[in-house]
Design a protein that fits this description.
- 64% of the residues lie in helices and 2% in strands.
- The protein is mostly helical.
- The chain has one domain (3-155, 208-304).
- Strands 1-2 form a two-stranded antiparallel sheet.
- Strand 1 (186-189) and strand 2 (192-195) form a beta hairpin.
- It starts with 7 loop residues before the first helix and ends in a 50-residue tail after the last helix.
């Protein structure tokens, strides 16, 4: 449905609320860098889930049950797929040894970038479906393919931060310092701007979110064609992602079978989109039921059949560490890490081990 289906004032009001919450987040609640404890993360997770459910109730009352169920299904799909992002966030933060007190800042600005990317992709996807109906079959086939790939992909496959092409370009064209400088993304050294590892990690987070958005947004188009419903369900799910990360980061490995549930959901949604294109409709409540049952089953199965502990592996090389902090809160290199790419012109590299 076109953008005019919902009054422009609903768009203005929703986005004003989002900007207000983000301003309160950075300006009041998280002005100072700090380690987000599980209790704080649980409170904020509950807050965002409650806000999302209240908004869902508003959609039910104001626009009817059809739109309400579409929002709830889209929100659940996006929220559950976002959990898959958390596995990658854990890996990236660990790989670059991001100090815990700076992780919230990275995720905050990552959310800002995600909001911009999501609305851009949603508008582009809506235009393509409106102008070229056959695109719906491509979206559906892509979701089925993604689901199959997710199911057969081994843990850790395709998740190598050093191989990220955006990171390669960043290192090639910009000098990167070998230490964290508090919450700064850029610093000035010898009269020139130098990128800190914090910005490197932010770029990686943004690029991985873009990849995940290419899966989740077509999936939401399968349950609703109204871009206000698609947009709001996506944004509210994304806004709750940071607190969910801090709540689950230490235990997320326990949900090792969740990826298979997500794979089934993606394949089902892709099949629904293809069938919808040829006139075979699957009721939205049936879709919601399938999503809930599959995801809940994969979570329960993960807890009933826990992952077998593997033999101890040597620790992964540490790129940066917060072992020593200077007066500015800069985390310095301790000499036990691998150097950055050796052939990167202009980069500031860590020293070699003695």
């Amino acid at each position: 449905m076109p953008i005019t289906t919902f009054s422009v004032w609903w768009w203005v009001g929703f986005n004003a609320f989002v900007l207000l919450m983000l301003a309160l987040d950075l300006g009041i609640f998280n002005r100072k860098a700090h380690v987000v404890k599980p209790k704080e993360a649980a409170i904020w997770t509950a807050v965002w889930v409650t806000i999302s459910l209240l908004f869902c109730g508003f959609i039910f009352k104001q626009f009817g049950s059809d739109y309400g169920w579409q929002f709830l299904t889209g929100y659940l799909i996006e929220y559950s797929l976002s959990v898959d992002n958390l596995f990658v966030f854990v890996l990236i933060f660990g790989y670059f040894s991001v100090p815990a007190q700076y992780q919230h800042r990275i995720l905050f600005w990552g959310i800002i970038g995600a909001l911009i990317m999501r609305i851009t992709l949603i508008l582009a996807g809506n235009y393509l479906i409106e102008e070229f109906h056959w695109v719906i079959y491509i979206f559906g086939a892509f979701l089925i393919y993604t689901g199959v790939r997710m199911a057969i992909e081994k843990e850790g496959d395709g998740v190598d931060p050093e191989a990220n092409p955006i990171l390669v370009l960043l290192r090639r064209w910009l000098p990167v310092t070998n230490q964290y400088h508090g919450q700064k993304f850029l610093i000035r050294e010898n009269g020139r701007l130098v990128v800190t590892p914090l910005l490197v990690v932010l770029v990686l987070i943004e690029s991985t979110d873009l990849i995940f958005a290419l899966d989740s947004i077509p999936a939401t188009f399968a349950v609703s064609r109204n871009i206000f419903i698609i947009y709001t369900s996506n944004i509210l799910a994304i806004l709750g992602l940071r607190s969910l990360y801090f709540l689950l980061s230490s235990v997320i490995d326990k949900f090792h079978l969740l990826k298979y549930g997500l794979a089934v959901v993606l394949a089902f949604i892709g099949a629904k989109m293809v069938l919808d294109g040829v006139g075979v409709k699957i009721d939205i409540l049936v879709s919601l039921g399938v999503v809930v049952v599959v995801l809940a089953s994969s979570i329960v199965a993960s807890l009933v059949w826990p992952k077998k502990e593997e033999e101890a592996k040597p620790e992964a090389p540490v790129r940066f560490t917060d072992a020593s902090l200077d007066g500015d809160g800069a985390a310095t290199y301790t000499g036990n890490a691998l150097p950055a790419e050796p052939s990167v012109p202009g980069a500031v590299h860590p020293p070699s081990d003695p």
